[in-house]
Amino acid sequence: MNEYVAETKNLTKYYHDTCALNQANISIKRGEIYGLVGDNGAGKSTFLKLLSGQIHPTSGDLTLFGQHMPQKLMQARSRMGVLIENPGFYPQLTIEQNMEYYRIQKGVPGKDSVEEALKITGLLHIRKKRCKGLSLGMKQRLGLAIALLGVPEFLLLDEPINGLDPSGILEMRNLLLKLNEEKNITILISSHILSELEQIATVYGFLKNGYLLQQITAEQLRKKCSDYIEILVSDPEQYAVLLEQKLHHGDYQILPDRRIHILNADETIDTYSRLASDAGLQIMKLTRYRQSLEDYYMNLKNGGAKTC
Amino acid sequence: MLNYIKSEWYQVLHSKNIYIMTAILSGGTLLMNIILCISRNAITDFPYGTFRFSLNTLTAVPSTLIILGAVVAACVCTEDLKNGVLKNAVSYGISRPAILLSKCIISLAAALITMIITLVIYIGSAYLLLVNPESLPLRELLTGIGAVLPCATAFMVLMIVLRLLCLKEMIAVIWWVMIYYLIPMICFFVGLKVDIFERISEWMPYIFLKTGVMVTMNNYQCLWDTSEGLTRCIVAGFIGIIVFLTFGVWKYRKQEF
Question: What residue spans define the domains of chain B?
Answer without folding.
Answer: 2-252
